[in-house]
């Protein structure tokens, strides 16, 4: 019976680690953005790790996939199980912290392919922790599926393929795009809220200083005069009780000089957006390609605009640095990170529909009609 339960746990954990790892390996840049959220001052306050987020992301997802393979084929069971246990204990703590303090609303466990709430992520990790504990207790039942040379070769091949995949998607774009702005998306329709869709519900909450501590008191209690004696009013806020329908595309704007050009740009028959969510973090070899590309696209009748969250001074600095003559418009950095992974990157629209997306390394592959 112990052997059967061990083999079931072995298969479940191994397959789940491989699937989860491959989804994130398909988009390590996206996972690095999620790690930056965790490292921020608002969550773990480990901002010194932020510059290394992409490197850490690649290491974690490759290790996750290879660990899954190692478990399934029985490669060095003691090392594999200990590694799995250490990883799941860390992520269980992380997802609990995130859920309890409501710091990160999506753990990024399955990238953009499957969104989990913080508590769903924590529950998933608890289940995995139980399964890995079964493996830890019954390590003697984890035996290699075939000979030592074959097992070693399988791990080497898995590791090599993961390295190649990571390199490829970083030099181009994710192989499979799970994001809301994938090719074929009609941005205007994706921004619409269907009639009758559930709306978010909020509760009015008052904050009072009670014995030196800021304490939330409900509207009903305030109206019923149940505020502790001597409490001092601090603030009032609307607390989300139930989240309503959120369209796949939200917070997408095209602004310049205080004016909103979103609707007019999305009506244009031929638009190219040159996206750099942060110009200070843009790649020099990519930025150098933009002006020549802009000139070619403009000759073909395209409206070409830059999209960034950087300020006016930074925009002018970088336009001068790279000799750029097209205009930059403002959009939220998180939205721009969601649209594309390269910095800069190219997105082609036809009346608001995404028809092409390219990494700056593939700018010569953009089809100009």
Automatic annotation (TrEMBL):
Keywords: Membrane, Transmembrane, Transmembrane helix. The keyword Protein biosynthesis does not apply. Residues 4-136 form the Methylamine utilisation protein MauE domain. The keyword Transmembrane helix applies. It is found in: Membrane. One of its GO terms (biological process) is methylamine metabolic process. The chain crosses the membrane at residues 7-25, 49-72, 79-101, 121-138, 150-170. GO terms for cellular component: membrane. It is a multi-pass membrane protein. It comes from the Bacteria. Its main location: membrane. Pfam families: MauE. InterPro entries: Methylamine_util_MauE (IPR009908). NCBIfam families: BT_3928_fam. This is DoxX family protein. It comes from Flavobacterium sediminis.
